[in-house]
Each structure stands twice: as structure tokens, then as C-alpha cells.
Amino acid sequence: MVAINALTNPEALPLHLVDAIACTSALVVAPHPDDETLGCGGAIALLRDRGCNIQVLVISDGTLSHPGSCKYPAPKLRALRESETISALAVLGVEATAVTFLRLPDGGVPTYEPEFSQAVASCRNYLTQFPPQLIFLPLRYDPHPDHRASWKIIYTALTNLNLSSRLIEYPIWDWDETQRGSLPNLPSWRLDISSVVQLKQQAIALYRSQTTNLIDDDPEGFRLTAEMLANFTRPWEVYMDATI
What we know:
Layout: E1 15-16, E2 25-30, H1 35-49, E3 53-60, H2 74-92, E4 99-104, H3 115-129, E5 134-138, H4 145-159, E6 166-170, E7 188-192, H5 197-205, H6 208-211, H7 226-229, E8 236-242
Parallel strand pairs: 1-7, 2-3, 2-5, 3-4, 5-6
Antiparallel strand pairs: 6-8, 7-8
């Protein structure tokens, strides 16, 4: 089964247990604060339960979700979203010391020079310090430019390192049929997270800035719809295998 059918009929994909991703160290790359929990929350909880050392790298600062808010100007919003990430990951078993915020501009994760090369260098240094056996990456063709840019930065950093990490890509905005474009031709499968799906749901709920009217003074502010959230609260998660 390949990725072109993965999201149109996900129930047809093979269903694997956590044994399929068993490892001693893993890195979860999140373009924004919340993507790690939405896309990989179940995998994180399952791997942590097995004693896997998980590091989380959040690429952007998340400050574009409510640009018109006076109650939450960018510095305060960044602090809020980072605190939500720490709280959500704690529910999933990840300590705050294992979470790194790169704080690149939300909506402007760079694909241009010299900022792109600077971001690649930062991530290369990070990967050298924490070389993981398994890396969860945002899907390379995700409709959101920050997701595509985050994939490109990490992928470029990896090509200059002598690592044998297994790469797994996870979808976020491809679940929205109105945004979905071409998908990569990658082997696709589901991970059974039924034993931890309630934990994942609890973790998602801690992102109140993205799921409730906590920030109520920006009519154009972002909020995940119930329809979109439903894609991330099922008893399985969809992944796609990739290679460097």
C-alpha cells in the first residue's frame, strides 16, 4: 500500500503494533507547538512506556496563530504555546528537559538563504548531540509551507551526517481534503495506539490556545475544528516510511 491511498482510505492500511517502531532513542520533529502531539502523540506514549529516550524538536515559535490578539502579543503567545507543549508532552511521558524550541518564525520557517543554511547548521548540531535511531518528520508534501520547510531543513541536515536513523513521516494538514495535494509514493501503515488514545486525547486538550476560545480577542485567530481534531483522536496513527 502506498501513500497515494493512505489518507483517502486509511482503514485499509496495515495495522502494526509498537514493536514495529521499537527503539532506544527517537526524535520527534514538530513544525509548530502541537504537531508532535497531534501527529505522533500515541507513538510517543507507547515508546516512552517501553523506556525509549524521546527528544522533541519544535521548529517554529507558533506566534502566528493569533496575530491580532492584544491579550497575547507574540512574546506572551510564544510562552503560552511552549508551556502547552511542555504540559502535553508530560502527559505522554516526556520530560521538559527533552524538549527543544528552535523558535524560527511561525509562517516563515526558511527555505531561503542565508536563513535556511543557518537553520540546517543548528539542526545538524542538535542531531550530533542527540543522534536518534528513529526520527518522526512532518510529511514532505504537507500543504503547510512550515511543515515542508521543516522537513527540508532536517532532511538536509541529515544528508551531511553519518547517521543510520530510520525516518518516518506523519501527516497533519493532508487530512484536510480541501488542502491535500500530491502525496509521496512511500510505504504507508497505521500504528495501533488504542491502549494510549485516551492519554493522547488528554494531551491534545492541553493545547487550549488552539482548541478553545481561550484567546478571544482575535476574530481571525486560528482554532482547530472538531472535524480536523477527529483525525487525531482515533485509535491509530498513520505513518509513511522514508529514507535519506
